[in-house]
Structure formats: structure tokens, C-alpha cells
Design goal:
Blueprint: E1 8-12, H1 18-26, E2 29-34, H2 38-48, H3 60-66, E3 81-84, H4 93-96, H5 111-123, E4 127-132, H6 144-158, E5 165-170, E6 181-188, H7 208-212, H8 295-301, H9 314-323, H10 327-340, H11 371-374, H12 390-396
Helix pairs in contact: 1-10, 3-5
Length: about 400
């Protein structure tokens, strides 16, 4: 089976287009995009309406029941790449804190993965690419066993040799200005090995200041909620732990009694922490100016173009960008697919790569703790240790 057209990609779970932008830059031509969220669909139309065909049917499960390769101008086996980042919530760290959420692949939101695997059976693409949180590939609720079982059935049915290769990659090690560890799963139809991209920025990552120094923000969002006025008293690069008995501030919280991103702030001289898709009012990372990040800044930290249009309310826009695959990492993975298939691939520096600047300003000065929070200063109990907190004890009852 040989691909008679250009390097084609069918995109499942396209979202705001982070993965698709990278694959496009790597040299792939879209034959279709599948996306359920209405705001994300509007974003795709606003940016690539004429270049990335968006299916009228939004649900990948429904599409997998009716589509045939001829519908996108291909025959079975001619599609180069089937790519996507399925819903991550069932496999996220947050889901592991609740005994009602630790069901992973049995979560109803995971059913869409079945639609994606059905598309593998229908198209027999030369390559498959999946991106997701680390829990998607490892742990007791991982989706990887389901993927491997489905690929084994497809191999037996069609005489092909898909074999899942898995790595956990940190986007910052590849030039993305964000610490973002994600599971990457690749399978090639003929069973050959995938050419993984080389980590080029392990020692000298692109930093938050490099990314955000020249970003223009029209109306910076304002911090809200009970803890908003505590942010100015936390140094950049720190979180609530600053205000514990082991920190340098005031003992307002018990040590390790909150989640890591609680009141977490960016540091100019470090890559961003992982962006959240559905942050609460106290969930970081916050800007060093003690405010939430603007969507324009989030796009930059995801290595997406400055002019990329994100439709919807502020909350919908944050969700879209926070869920996106960093475009730079996606491009490098796309190049790896082409090399693995024996196709020519560009060796030029990526258009998404952000240069490191020669100078970084000094950290912002912290402000005193406001009187409102002084009443919370006390000797607080610390977290008792791994597996000993109140939530784990509840889960074992």
C-alpha cells in the first residue's frame, strides 16, 4: 500500500489547532478535522476554514460509523497519518485524587478513543500519532493496553504490523517555553521504528521572559477570588508553599496541604509551568504581575502563532489553548513521522521556535501580606506524607 497523494493527515480531536499547526508546518496536508466543541470549531473555521476541512458531523464516534476513505479522496491505506489528542480528563492527575474519577478508560469521556481506533481500522494509515497526559500511557487507569489490544486485532485482520511506541516527553526540552510532560504514542503500519525527535533544549530551555517579553495584551485579566490579594506577597516562581512554616513568608497554610499549582507564579528566568485548561480562581500559573495569564500569553507559551484567533468567552478560550498540543513539539513529531516513513523532511529551524534573549529583568519585588490574611497566620499541620493524607484514607475505606 503506497500513498498516491501528498503527506496527508486526518485530525481527530483537533481542538484549537495546536497539533494541526505543527503537522502543517512539518509538511502535512489536511484531508479532514474532527472536533466536537463548538467554540473550538469556530476557532478552526476562523483560522483555516478553507485549508483544514472540518466535518459537519462533530462527534468522532458518529464519523467512525459512516466515513469511508473515498469520502476524503483516498483509498484504504493511502492516508499518511491519523493524529489526535483525545480528552485527557479521565487520565489526568486531578482525576486520580477522587475514587469516583479513577476509572480512566471506563470513563464515558474515553469512548471517543474507540472512535479514533475505529478510524485506524477504516483507513489503515501509514502512521498513528496520539498525544495526551502521562496517565494516558502509564498507571492503573491507562488507555495504552486498550490501544495495544485494538492494534493487535487490526494487525490480525489486515496483515499489517502496528506496534505502539511510547515516550513521556517534556515540551520544554524541545524548545517550548513550558514545562509540559505528555505521553506520545506512535505506531507505524509496517512495524518500523519511529524516529523520535532529539531534545535540544535540556540545558538551556526557552524561558517565560523570552516568550512573553514582546507579547501585546489588550486587557490583562484581573485576579479574583479569596486569595487574589495574596498573590503580590508570593515571589515569582513560587506557590503557596512560600506562606508555610518551611517557606520564607508567613505561615498561612500547612506544608503540602494544597495542590502544586495553588497560587503558583511564573518566573521570568524559567519556562512556564504547565498551563491549565480549566483553572479555578487560585490555580496557576499566574503572571509575575500577580494576575491570570492573558490568552495571547498562553498562545505564546504553547508556541502557537501570535495572530491565531481563539473564539468564545474568556473561559472557553482558556480551555482551548490550555488543552492544545504545543505546535513546536507537534512539528518535530510530524517531521519524525516523515523521516520514519522514508519521506523528505525539512531540517530548517522551526517557525515556532522562540529565541532566548540576552538579558532578563530582575524578579518583581514582593509586597507585604495584606491585613485580611494576617488572621490566618498560625501553626498549621503539615501533610502527613505520601498515601497518608485525608483523601487517600477515604479511598481505602
Amino acid at each position: 500500500m503506497t500513498n498516491l497523494k501528498s503527506n496527508t493527515v486526518l485530525s481527530g480531536f483537533s481542538g484549537v489547532g495546536g497539533l494541526d499547526l505543527g503537522l502543517e508546518a512539518a509538511g502535512f496536508e489536511h484531508v479532514g478535522c474532527i472536533e466536537l466543541d463548538d467554540a473550538a470549531r469556530q476557532s478552526l473555521k476562523a483560522n483555516r476554514g478553507g485549508q483544514w476541512p472540518l466535518f459537519d458531523t462533530a462527534d468522532i464516534m458518529d464519523i467512525a460509523k459512516q466515513i469511508r476513505p473515498i469520502d476524503v479522496g483516498l483509498r484504504r491505506g493511502e492516508l499518511t497519518l491519523l493524529a489526535g489528542a483525545p480528552p485527557c480528563q479521565p487520565f489526568s492527575k486531578a482525576a486520580q485524587w477522587s475514587h469516583t474519577s479513577r476509572i480512566g478508560i471506563r470513563d464515558s469521556r474515553s469512548e471517543s478513543l474507540g472512535g479514533f481506533l475505529n478510524l485506524v481500522d477504516i483507513f489503515l494509515p501509514e502512521a498513528i500519532l496520539l498525544e495526551n497526559v502521562t496517565g494516558f500511557a502509564q498507571g492503573i487507569v491507562a488507555a495504552l493496553p486498550t490501544i495495544e489490544h485494538s492494534l493487535a486485532l487490526i494487525n490480525s485482520r489486515w496483515g499489517v504490523s502496528y506496534r505502539a511506541e511510547v515516550r513521556i516527553l517534556d515540551a520544554a526540552e524541545f524548545g517550548v517555553p513550558q514545562r509540559r510532560r505528555r505521553a506520545i504514542i506512535v505506531a507505524l503500519r509496517e512495524g518500523n521504528r519511529f524516529s523520535w525527535p532529539v531534545a535540544t533544549h535540556v540545558r538551556f530551555p526557552v524561558r517565560s521572559w523570552d516568550a512573553l517579553a514582546d507579547v501585546k495584551v489588550g486587557s490583562p485579566p484581573i485576579a479574583r477570588g479569596k486569595w487574589a490579594d495574596l498573590l503580590p506577597s508570593i515571589p515569582e516562581g513560587m506557590n503557596y508553599l512560600w506562606h508555610t512554616a518551611r517557606g520564607g513568608g508567613r505561615p498561612i497554610f500547612g506544608y503540602r496541604t494544597r495542590y502544586w499549582s495553588f497560587l503558583l507564579k511564573l518566573a521570568k528566568g524559567l519556562p512556564s509551568w504547565t498551563l491549565a485548561a480549566q483553572p479555578g480562581p487560585a490555580t496557576g500559573p499566574f503572571h509575575w504581575d500577580s494576575r491570570p495569564l492573558a490568552v495571547e500569553e498562553m498562545l505564546r507559551l504553547q508556541s502557537m502563532p501570535a495572530g491565531w484567533i481563539v473564539e468564545g468567552t474568556y473561559r472557553e478560550r482558556v480551555r482551548q489553548v490550555g488543552n492544545a498540543t504545543p505546535s513546536l513539539l507537534a512539528e518535530l513529531l510530524g517531521r519524525g513521522v516523515l523521516v520514519s516513513l522514508g519521506r523528505s523532511s525539512s531540517t530548517r529551524p522551526s517557525q515556532f521556535l522562540i529565541p532566548r534573549l540576552s538579558e532578563i529583568p530582575e524578579p518583581e519585588e514582593v509586597e507585604p501580606v495584606k491585613p485580611f490574611y494576617q488572621g490566618l497566620v498560625a501553626q498549621h499541620a503539615e501533610h502527613p506524607g505520601v498515601g497518608l493524607g485525608p483523601r487517600p484514607r477515604q479511598m481505602t475505606v
